[in-house]
Specification:
This protein has nine helices and eleven strands. The chain has 466 residues and is of the alpha+beta class.
Length: 466
C-alpha cells in the first residue's frame, strides 16, 4: 500500500509554526501571525533593497573617486612634464596642493613600503580616466606604477618624466559612505513606518471577518435566535457568511421543532390526565385512589414544567437595564414567603446597587429556580454578589445540604435528570429547574456551574455579562 503524501502546498502540522524562532514568541491570533510574517518579509525586502542601494552607491562613489584622482594626477603630471627640468621643483612648490594629495620629485620609482600593488580593477579605472585627459608627449600608461587602493585607503602613483626622473603622487582614498545623505535615511524610515502601518491596517481589515464569524458562532452558542451575519464583502467572506447563516437556520429550526414537539406532547397530555383524575375519584379503594391521584399529580407537574420549559425556550422578552441586587432580594423575599422553614436561612450579601442588561422575567425565573433548588435540597439559600470582574458579574447561591455527587455535577443540567438521593418524588422536582436556569443564563451570554463546598453543601456559580 502506497503511503499517502501530504500536499506540498501546506506546512505539515509538526512543522507549524516554522521553527525559525522559539514557539513562545509565535503569536496566537491569525491577525498577529499574518502581520508578523508580512513585517518580517517587509524587513527582509528592505534590507535587500538597502544592500543593493549601498552596493550601487559604493560603486558610484569609487568611480567618481577614481575619476577625481586620475584627472588631478594626470593634470599635475602634464604641467610638470612640460616644465623644463631645472624649473620643475620650483613649479611643483608653487602649485596649490589639493586636499588629500601630495606630490614629490625623485630619481627612482617610488617604494611601495607597506602598500600592495593596486588591484587590476582599480588600476583600470584610473587608466581610463587618465586617458580621457590625454598623456603629454611620448608618455605611456604602461610605464606608470600604482600601489595601494581602496583597501588601504591610500595609494601612490609613480610616473616617469620625459627627461628622466619620476613624479610621485600620494593620494588618500577615503572609504565610501553610502549613508551620508540624511534626507535619504529620513525618507527611508518614513516609508518603512508607512508600509508597516498599512500592513497592520490591511491585516486587521482582512481578518476582521474571521473575528466577526467567531463572535457570531459564540453568540449562536449562547442564543439560538442570534441575528444572522451580513452576507457582504469579498466573495469568500460572503460565501462563508451565507453558509454560516444556513447552518444557524437549520439549527434554529431543529431546536424549534423539538421544543414545539415536546410542548405539544405536554399540552396534549393534560386532557387525558384530567380524565384519569376524574375517573380515579370513582374508585372504591381509598388507598389505590390516593396513590393514583398522587401519580397523576406528579405527571401533571411534569407536564406543567415541560410547558414552562418550551415557553422559556421560545420567549422573545426584550433586554432592559435592571438593578441586579434588587432582583436578588425580590427573589429571596418571594422564596421566604413560600418557605415553611426558618426565613433567616435566606440572606443576601453584596453591593446595594449594580445595573446589568438582561431580560427581567427570564433572569428572575432562572435565579428563582436556583434558590428553590437550594432550599428544597439544602435547607438554606445564601446569595453572594461580587462586583464585575473581567466583564462578568458573579452570583453565588449556596446551601448547607448534603451536596451533589461529583459524577452528577454536570448531569443535573440534563432535562428530567434527578439525583435520587435528594431529588425524590416527595420533593416535587421533575428535573427541569436547573436546565431551564442554564438555558436562560446562556441566552444572556453567561452560564451557571455547580460545585460542592469543602465543608458540605453545594454552590451554584452564575456568570452574567456586566
Amino acid at each position: 500500500m502506497t503511503p499517502r503524501r501530504s500536499s506540498p502546498r501546506f506546512w505539515p502540522a509538526r512543522f507549524w509554526p516554522p521553527r525559525l524562532w522559539p514557539a513562545r514568541f509565535w503569536p496566537r491570533s491569525l491577525a498577529a501571525r499574518t502581520a508578523l510574517v508580512l513585517l518580517l518579509s517587509l524587513t527582509a525586502v528592505q534590507v535587500a533593497g538597502l544592500t543593493i542601494h549601498a552596493l550601487d552607491r559604493i560603486g558610484l562613489q569609487r568611480l567618481g573617486l577614481a575619476r577625481d584622482i586620475g584627472v588631478r594626477t594626470i593634470n599635475l603630471y602634464r604641467v610638470i612634464a612640460m616644465t623644463p627640468p631645472e624649473d620643475r621643483a620650483t613649479v611643483l612648490k608653487e602649485l596649490t596642493p589639493t586636499p588629500g594629495m601630495r606630490a614629490s620629485l625623485s630619481e627612482t620609482p617610488p617604494l611601495p613600503g607597506r602598500l600592495k600593488p593596486s588591484p587590476p580593477r582599480w588600476q583600470h579605472l584610473l587608466d581610463a580616466n587618465m586617458n580621457l585627459v590625454g598623456l603629454p608627449g611620448t608618455a605611456r600608461l604602461e610605464e606608470f606604477v600604482f600601489y595601494g587602493g581602496p583597501a588601504e585607503e591610500h595609494m601612490v602613483i609613480g610616473m616617469p618624466l620625459p627627461e628622466g626622473g619620476w613624479l610621485d603622487v600620494a593620494s588618500s582614498v577615503p572609504p565610501p559612505r553610502p549613508w551620508h545623505s540624511r534626507a535619504f535615511l529620513i525618507a527611508f524610515v518614513l516609508m518603512t513606518l508607512a508600509a508597516a502601518g498599512l500592513t497592520i491596517w490591511a491585516v486587521r481589515r482582512l481578518t476582521s471577518p474571521v473575528r466577526t464569524l467567531a463572535a457570531a458562532a459564540e453568540a449562536l452558542g449562547r442564543d439560538v435566535n442570534a441575528p444572522p451575519l451580513p452576507e457582504d464583502g469579498p466573495t469568500e467572506i460572503a460565501t462563508a457568511a451565507a453558509a454560516f447563516n444556513t447552518m444557524a437556520g437549520r439549527i434554529r429550526r431543529f431546536v424549534h421543532d423539538r421544543t414545539e414537539m415536546m410542548t405539544a406532547i405536554g399540552h396534549d397530555l393534560r386532557t387525558p390526565i384530567t380524565r384519569m383524575k376524574l375517573r380515579a375519584e370513582f374508585m372504591e379503594d381509598d388507598e389505590q385512589r390516593r396513590k393514583m391521584l398522587a401519580d397523576l399529580e406528579e405527571m401533571e407537574a411534569m407536564v406543567t414544567a415541560t410547558l414552562a420549559f418550551g415557553r422559556d425556550a421560545t420567549s422573545a422578552e426584550p433586554v432592559t437595564a435592571l438593578d441586579l441586587p434588587e432582583l436578588l432580594r425580590t427573589v429571596l423575599d418571594e422564596a421566604a414567603d413560600a418557605w415553611p422553614g426558618d426565613p433567616t436561612t435566606l440572606c443576601y450579601d453584596g453591593p446595594p446597587r449594580l445595573t446589568v442588561r438582561a431580560r427581567p422575567l427570564a433572569l428572575k425565573r432562572a435565579l428563582a429556580n436556583l434558590v428553590a433548588n437550594a432550599l428544597n435540597y439544602g435547607g438554606s439559600a445564601r446569595i453572594r454578589l461580587a462586583p464585575p470582574t473581567r466583564g462578568f458579574v458573579i452570583v453565588e447561591v449556596e446551601d448547607d445540604g448534603p451536596g451533589i455527587p461529583s459524577e452528577e455535577l454536570d448531569r443535573v443540567f440534563e432535562p428530567f435528570h434527578r439525583v435520587e438521593s435528594s431529588r425524590n418524588r416527595e420533593t416535587g422536582g421533575v428535573g427541569l429547574g436547573l436546565p431551564i436556569a442554564r438555558n436562560i443564563l446562556r441566552a444572556h451570554g453567561g452560564d451557571v456551574t455547580l460545585a460542592n463546598k469543602p465543608r458540605g453543601g453545594a454552590r451554584a456559580t452564575v456568570q452574567l455579562p456586566a
